């Protein structure tokens, strides 16, 4: 089974390479890269950790599978002593006082962090252009966006600057950039990985997600980060997913797809034809394919953004320059708060805070917010019914190809609609994996809650089928 992690592990154990030389090579690539993927380079920390791995190997000690493997971190995760900016002016000088649980588990396994990666500010965007560090450029065509909000993470993996990266997925922020850059990106079942130490965007859908170049590497990283955390009450205990468990797809008999995602003028003709061709290839393997009814894309996007904006308005209310962030003094305390937030938040972040405050305000909350919650329940119920009929649901990742840099900033509405095929699975809190096959921007594979193993299993099947 293809795996950079296994390959590098063997090279280290066989003394074909040193960990220091490997890390230095990756750091050099990151320093020279022109895709705007780097917010902070963790060179001193990385080289110190690499030297310790080399010393263990020199002493004849066995190292763990992830020990010495270089990885990247989206710049919304706490890593003690490092800048955690969320690609924003407000936090550009903020240093983490602690480390996120998911990142700590990787450090405990011996993985080596190289870089805090560029992203949309506070995760607000689908293009990684809403950032003080400059727009992330697509790994395949630098004139196009890298995708968002985990654009820097996806591009670094695609360009081999990191072996894997840790993104954050709220409404598609791992899956969409993975699709734009032809790599794998997983949004696990909500709660499988602790969110402690991840800057909250929308708490009810935020997920920690790995990005890598192979299914096996996704599996390895997922296993290390998963599990119950007393610091996150939404997290839960779960069994490891073995390599053997995902090597056979015999249990998968039926696959569904949402016909309204395909039977629409909004979808790119090439993505549509590629998807329909993929369905035929799946049928040819003896698997039954069913067309399913689902909510219209506009309903999904409206529901998601109603709830996400409400939650981000609440979550970001603490950022006023008093305890966190770049404070701008004014004539009085109220004015200081206003100027600090106005000057330091991006236009997109301000748009979402204003929208969220309106959704939650008296006179609107019953009409808009509560209706959004009811729709989310309906969406989850729809999924439960669907998974009584099919084992897996597949869909395109996006209705269109990556836009040119600058286009999304001119048309926020179009940017929101680019999430049309990802947000529904977020609202359902379902495990969903982008694979770099099936259409020009990849394919999403989704299973029922807690069936992350089934998603990886079907991804392995499709790897050799389409």
From TrEMBL:
- Which InterPro entries does the record match to this protein? Amidase (IPR000120), Amidase_CS (IPR020556), Amidase_dom (IPR023631), AS_sf (IPR036928)
Give the family this protein belongs to, as stated in its UniProt record: Belongs to the amidase family.
Q: Which GO terms describe its molecular function?
A: transferase activity
Q: What keywords sit in the KW lines? A: Transferase
Record has Transferase as a keyword:
yes
Per the UniProt entry, the signal peptide is none
The protein's name in its UniProt record: Asp-tRNA(Asn)/Glu-tRNA(Gln) amidotransferase subunit GatA
Q: Which organism is it from?
A: Algibacter marinivivus
